[in-house]
Amino acid sequence: MSVEEFLRVDDVVVGYGSSDILKSLSLSIRKGEFVALLGSSGCGKTTLLRAIAGFARPKSGAIHVNGKDVTLLPPDKRGMALVFQSYALWPHMTVAQNIGYGLKLRGMARADITRRVEELQDLLGLAGLGQRKPGALSGGQRQRVALGRALAIDPEILLLDEPLSNLDARIRLKVRHDISALQKRLGITAVHVTHDREEAMVMADRIVIMENGNIAQQGAPEEVFNRPASPFVAAFMGAENMIQLRGTVGGGHVKIDSSATNREAVLPLDGRALSDGVYEARFRAEGAHLLVNDGAADAADAGLDLVGHVEAASYPGGTWRHSVRVGDEILLVDSPQPVAQGEAVRVRIPAKNLFLFNLGGSFSRPRQSSLNEGGAARVLEASHA
Amino acid sequence: MSNTAPNRILGLLLVLPALAVIVLLFVVPLASSVIGAFETGDGFGLDNFAKAFELYTSDIIFTVVIVSISTVLIGLLSVAIGGYLVLGENPRAVAILRWLYRWPLFIPFIVVGQILRTFLAKNGLMNNILIEAGLITPLQAVSFLDWRGIVIAFVWKQTPFVALLVSGAMSALDRSTIEAARNLGSSRLRILFEIIVPQVATTMMVGLVLSFVTMMSVLSVPLMINAQSPTMITADIAFRINAYGDYGVANALGLISLVASGCVGWFYLRQTMKERA
Fold first, then answer.
1. Listed residues A204, A226, A248: the one ending a domain
2. Could you tell me which residues come within 8 angstroms of residue A357 by beta carbon, excluding any fewer than 6 positions away?
3. Where in the sequence of chain B do the CATH 1.10.3720.10 domains occur?
4. What is the pLDDT of residues A158-169, one digit of tens each?
5. Could you tell me which residue ranges the ABC transporter domain spans (chain A) (predicted)?
6. Where residue A232 falls among pLDDT bands split at 50, 70, 90?
7. Single residue among A176, A198, A226 that ends a domain in this structure
8. What is the mean pLDDT of residues B210-235?
9. Are residues A59 and A125 in the same domain?
């Protein structure tokens, strides 16, 4: 065990009946680190959080906090506090009673409880609301009461189960920063469950992307964003444009064969683990350039060029978003200038923005797995990207 | 404006059947009973009440005390049952309890009285079992067929009803409010009384008020279990009418038990009004 390691999850299996939600998952978290568990619904991220908190008992495996095995300890003996998605405030108690309940259970003197509760109310911007019932608070205030209740008992680890998902979009942006600033200030270790990529990127030191009860990839936000380890991660991190390419590897480069929809390109391997064959290529709308087809030839190593024509354009703000038909695919590409519908274009994807993955030999692609289905329709709604 | 008058008549015609049923079957009998309570041989007066209190004061107190004790016990038991159904950690025990506790709901009061009469008598099943088990000697055997029998019968019959309401309200609670308390280190008993019961208090009040009023009106149980003095008001009313044809005192006793039920109902109404406000 390394010195820094504080919370360790070892080969934990959690499931009900014969189906396992977590499949032998291991994770290690440093003291003071803010880790985001990111994944779509049903991937097991909340189950992992509940297993850490002590509400879901693992079938096998172990959970250690600071070197101590807590796998079989009840939730309150683990030095952790959980903030629930629904906040789970007690409606019959006032704000002060909610925040102070954990202290009352610990047998703290009433005067000390009052002092600590007031401290927390000031810290969380709840001063003067102590005598209100949760029903008389706004969503953001309730969320802060839930946070205060968790922080009151001075937990070593703060567990957050989608605490922002019930807030308005605008308040959410502010609370994101509030929570991560508070976490840094208190030096507390935090595990945050979310399905919101941007939220995870902004708040966390490390992102753990989960898929089907396993960890698909983990790393710093920029690492996961720029070097996705699998098509799933690439798609989850926003690279939803997908095409298939054929190519060969050699001399530190990958040579993409030309086809009806793309020109030949030679790209640096740059650490990609690829072999000859068929590739699934993914890129983000903002990671590609739209060039009006002027026939001018560029150097082949500038990136990958796809040829197609514009089907629609919309303005979500900042840049124009175009849906471009390339062969059978419809790809979304951003451009600072609008391009007219029907215009023949080249989509240029710089090598660093192109994520390539070997496709298991066969050229047939399961249509239903394409996240790009209905891409044209999505262009038309003002995208929130 | 010209439309208003015919419309009003049409509206009255539409509600007339329902109104007539209520007036004829509910308001008129109630009013005649209330008036009857004040009717004496020579006009109106409080003679019936004087006689009722003179003869039955101990029975009135007996009734209110017994029903109150039963209500408190029903409340405690239904919280215990509901609490175990929500917080119990042995799934099999929870399933068995969930299946069992509702049975008395389907047994009529008169049958409950009969069952308990054979069970609680001095030479009844309960004492026989205790004697066979060597826990008491035959000389120590006592009959429970007095106020205790009535309380047992009421609690036996009414607990499932309140427990049904209470456990329904408990299982409708946001489960994370329970987990949040567990997360902070609350024991199951504290969770039950500090987190769960306050959140289902209104539902429990409704159940207990309805139980109180039901128990006030049961005749079969006191007749089956406790046919001696003091007994419950219902038995006295039946006796006044059947033995003496004395409707005046019977009506007065009825009005007294109506007032007792009314107090509880008023308490409940005040509580719900406060919550709505």
1. A226
2. A230, A231, A234, A274, A279, A280, A281, A282
3. 58-276
4. 999 998 888 888
5. 7-237
6. very high
7. A226
8. 90
9. yes
If asked whether residues A17 and A153 sit together in one domain, one would say yes
The residue-averaged pLDDT of A279-295 equals 85
Q: H-helix or E-strand containing A47?
A: helix A45-53
| Residue B137 reports pLDDT greater than 90 | no
| CB-CB neighbors (< 8 A) of A84 in chain B | 176, 179-180
* CA B100 – CA B164 distance, rounded (Å): 12
CATH of domain B58-276: 1.10.3720.10
Q: Which has the minimum average pLDDT: A95-109, A298-312, A324-338, B125-139?
A: A298-312
B195, containing H or E segment: none
Task: Please report how many Cα atoms fall inside a 13 Å half-sphere around the Cα of residue B167, on the Cβ side.
Answer: 24
d(CA A232, CA A209): 10
Looking at the domain assignment, is residue A231 inside a domain? no
**The domain spanning residue A197 has which CATH number?**
3.40.50.300
- Domain contains A293: yes
Size of interface A-B (CB pairs under 8 A): 58
Is the CB of B271 inside 8 Å of chain A's CB atoms? no
Confidence of residue A384 (pLDDT cuts 50, 70, 90): very low
Complex confidence, ipTM: 0.77
In terms of residue numbers, what domain contains A100? 5-226
Smallest Cβ–Cβ distance between B177 and the set A53, A74, A90 belongs to A90
Q: What is the total count of domains within chain A?
A: 2
- Measured between beta carbons, the chain B residues lying within 8 angstroms of A156 are none
Q: How confident is the model at residue B153 (pLDDT cuts 50, 70, 90)?
A: very high
Q: Classify residue A232: in a domain, yes or no.
A: no
